[in-house]
Amino acid sequence: MPRVGSSEGLFRHKPATRKVIHLVYKLIHFIRPVLRVLGLKRVAFYLRRLDLPVGPDDLVLEVGSGDNPYPRANVLVDRSIESLKRCRDSGISRAFVVADGSFLPFKTGSFNFVVAHHVLEHSDDPAGFLNELQRVATMGYIETPQAFREYIIPVRSHRLRIRADGEQLVITKKSSGSPDPQTMEEFRPLVASGEFRKFHDAHPEVFFLCFQWRNKISYLITNPETAYPRELTDPMCSGPPYVNHPQAIAAIKSSPSHTYGTPAHVMNRD
Predict the structure, then answer these.
(1) Domains of the chain
(2) Alpha-carbon dihedral sign for residues 202, 48, 83, 121
(3) Of 61, 93, 221, 256, which one has the greatest count of Cβ atoms within 10 A?
(4) Alpha carbons within 13 A on the beta-carbon side of 131
(5) Cβ contact 67:89 at 8 Å
(6) Measured between alpha carbons, how far is residue 120 from residues 36, 65, 129, 158, 171 in Å?
(7) pLDDT of residue 268
(8) pLDDT tens for each residue of 146-183
């Protein structure tokens, strides 16, 4: 169990209400396979945000939440002060922490579950990021673009190509932000006809990796010594108003406003 002390203040609802909401989430869990069978794969995919294997009293952390967090997340972490302020100003009532995913200011085992939604691919320290996720939580969910999607529709702010080999994440540092010529040539007829975009929009589960883990994240970085080219510098992860490791930790320690209500019993590393 997470070492979080009294965490009741991190929940937005009373225990009885949480149990009702949990039943709704369980219903969604059973509905999603039915939707896929009925051909409504896109609907089933977008309901994934409500389908996490957590109990009504489990404490959930989201790393890289931006201003559109998972409904079930209790504590939100982001490097962007502005994103978290927009989240707060839009009426989302959660505990906020400004921090880097590769250096989380929480005690070991503080959370039951951690979500990292489309953030790992931006990381310049994937090993540190994944090690921190499994340090602070006992289970989690990671979502990224599939590796082959980066060959076809590369995003310059994405530093990594990620795929799953069974229960292991296989991570490759990108050497370029440009499309792969050979892959693009193979897909050119589909792209030119517009069919590729239709297929992409209708079958998002094909193009995005949805990875759940328990107890330990098994991962392999195929080229750990590779340096990132300058063109892959991620403006979302450097420079104002974003903060790096020491700045984030200093802000958390010196200014309560940067934690937005996160209690001390989950703060500070061991």
Answers:
(1) 8-266 (3.40.50)
(2) negative
(3) 61
(4) 8
(5) no
(6) 27, 12, 7, 9, 10
(7) 52
(8) 998 888 888 888 899 999 999 999 999 988 766 677 76
